[in-house]
Amino acid sequence: MNTRTDGEQRAAAAYEWAASLIGLARRLIADRVDVDVSPIRPAIQVLCGVIKELPPDQAKEWVTHLLDLQHELASLGHDFAVRQRDDDTLPPREEGPGACR
Fold it and tell me: What is the DSSP letter of 54?
């Protein structure tokens, strides 16, 4: 039985949206793909909007989750910067036969 309120369900959906985008970006960065993290911002803004509509006792819980997401986003940006720096110091990769040019 689901005991979440409509607001809590919307907060959970917004959180899952943002978390899934951060997870995707993290996997792409690990695969050495350049990532634009700007699509994550609207997901976090939706969560902020939903939190503002929640009663204080429910909002308190979701603010904690929001802070976790913001920490993950900052960590993601740091990891991307480190990868960019490391890529700039490595010699160019050799392209094998059949590589797209």
Answer: S
Residue ranges of E strands in the chain: none
User: pTM of this prediction?
Assistant: 0.75
* SS3 of residue 65 by DSSP: helix
Residue positions counted in the chain:
101
Residues whose CB falls within 8 Å of the CB of residue 72, separated by 6 or more in sequence, listed in order: 19, 22
99 occurs within a structural domain? no
- pLDDT (tens digit per residue) in 24-53: 999 998 888 888 888 898 999 999 999 999
Those residues whose C-beta lies under 8 Å from the C-beta of residue 80, and which sit 6 or more positions away, are 29, 35, 37
**Maximal CA-CA distance, the chain:** 61
Domain that residue 41 falls in: 6-89
